[in-house]
């Protein structure tokens, strides 16, 4: 998996820093990744499955 912005491979799951600041366990935002190269945080979201194409 590569960063869609800079193409680097150093991607890690993004942990929400607000939870850690409040003394709670860091929450991993669903689908969020952070690039350690360009410091961008982006999300990869599963939308759904393609419906089977029905021939008519
Ligand atoms: Zn990047």
What's the β-strand tally?
3
The radius of gyration computed from the alpha-carbon positions, rounded to a whole number of angstroms, is 16 Å
Distance between the termini: 38 Å
Overall body shape: flat
**Secondary structure category:** mainly beta
How would you summarize this macromolecular structure in one to three sentences?
The chain has one helix at residues 17-21; strands at residues 11-16, 27-35, 41-43. Strand 2 and strand 3 (41-43) form a beta hairpin. The chain is mainly β and 56 residues long.
Task: Provide structural commentary.
- The protein is mostly beta strands and 56 residues long.
- It has a domain at 11-43.
- Helices cover 9% and strands 32% of the residues.
- The chain has 1 helix and 3 strands, in the order βαββ.
- It has a 3-stranded antiparallel sheet.
- A hairpin with a 5-residue loop joins strand 2 and strand 3.
- It starts with 10 loop residues before the first strand and ends in a 13-residue tail after the last strand.
- The relative contact order is 0.26.
- The mean pLDDT is 83.
- The site of zinc ion has 8 residues, from loops.
């Amino acid at each position: 998996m590569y960063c869609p912005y800079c193409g680097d491979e150093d991607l890690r799951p993004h942990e929400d820093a607000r939870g850690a600041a409040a003394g709670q366990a860091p929450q991993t935002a669903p689908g969020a990744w952070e690039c350690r190269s360009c410091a961008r945080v982006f999300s990869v979201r599963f939308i759904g499955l393609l419906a089977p194409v029905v021939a008519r």
